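To fix ideas, we quote verbatim one protein's residues and fold tokens.
>
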Amino acid sequence: MSTVRTCTTPKDGWALYSHFLGNLLLVIQLHEDAKGRGVVVSNEERIIYDTWAQLVGNLYMVMWRMKLNGHEDTAAKMQQIVDMVVEQDLTNREVRKAIHGKHRELDIGVQEFEDEVKRLLAERVQQ
């Protein structure tokens, strides 16, 4: 499997974007959900900052690898997501939703995956 240091194709790059956005934004979401329920989390700001830094770093590295391997169009699309992650407050639910929406819009693989899941679920219902 490709990593942030070895990916060379848009398919691998978008797969890594899906992985990092899904997992690291979930960490922030779960943290915010716990805080909303009154759960006291030690090192609260540190958790958010470290998760944000990890997300930005990994997304940037994948985007840079796309540029390095001649996939300028893919890199430009990925840069839009990097910009959103850097410039906006990831503790805000609507911001996280917008980032996922932008990812869904720019990565054709996400839509293909969602369409296939819908098709499989429809088949299952018909059986």
Notes: The chain has one domain: 10-126. The mean pLDDT is 93. DSSP finds five helices and no strands in the chain. The helical segments are 10-36, 44-68, 72-87, 93-106, 108-126.
